[in-house]
């Protein structure tokens, strides 16, 4: 048993050394794997940080573009609102102008009608006055004829009386 025990001890020592060697190799492999995983993890972290920066940059670009588009749309909307407001003002002013024109035409037509009536009244009054003056003139002519006839008779009588007086 002693030789067997010594062989076992040697064999145990050999196994131990072999086990230690294998464990050292495994530890070295695990160290390499851990080192490789750490490097990969660091690379992955850097890739993630770079990707996050790219996404942030893209997000800022998209936000900027969106803000520019919104501003352009707002300007277009404001411009269109202003156009519509101007069109409404022009339409309202045109309507007011048309109403004022129609009122002026109606007032002018009424003025023409009043003028025609006034002219007709003046013509009628003038015709009446002319007729009265014609009557007066006719009366004056008759009176003048009568006076002339009387004057002519008086002149004859005076001539006859002068002729008698001379005789």
From TrEMBL:
Coiled coil region boundaries: 116-150
**Occurrences of domain Protein FAM184A/B N-terminal (ranges):** 33-157
Please provide the record's keywords in A-Z order.
Coiled coil
Task: List all membrane-crossing ranges.
Answer: none
Q: Does the keyword Aminoacyl-tRNA synthetase apply?
A: no
Q: Which InterPro entries match?
A: FAM184A/B_N
Q: Which PANTHER family match?
A: PROTEIN TAG-278-RELATED
Q: What is this protein called?
A: Protein FAM184A/B N-terminal domain-containing protein
> What is the originating organism of this protein?
Tetraselmis chuii
């Amino acid at each position: 048993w002693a030789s067997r025990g010594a062989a076992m001890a040697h064999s145990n020592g050999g196994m131990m050394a072999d086990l230690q060697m294998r464990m050292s190799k495994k530890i070295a492999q695990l160290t390499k794997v851990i080192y490789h995983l750490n490097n990969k993890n660091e690379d992955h972290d850097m890739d993630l940080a770079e990707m996050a920066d790219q996404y942030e940059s893209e997000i800022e670009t998209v936000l900027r573009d969106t803000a520019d588009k919104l501003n352009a749309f707002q300007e277009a909307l404001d411009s269109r609102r202003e156009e519509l407001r101007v069109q409404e003002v022009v339409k309202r002013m045109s309507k007011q102008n048309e109403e004022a024109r129609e009122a002026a035409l109606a007032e002018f037509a009424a003025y023409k009608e009043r003028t025609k009536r006034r002219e007709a009244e003046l013509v009628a009054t003038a015709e009446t006055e002319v007729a009265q003056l014609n009557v007066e003139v006719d009366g004056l002519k008759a009176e003048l004829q009568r006076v002339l006839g009387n004057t002519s008779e008086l002149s004859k009588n005076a001539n006859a009386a002068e002729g008698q007086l001379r005789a």
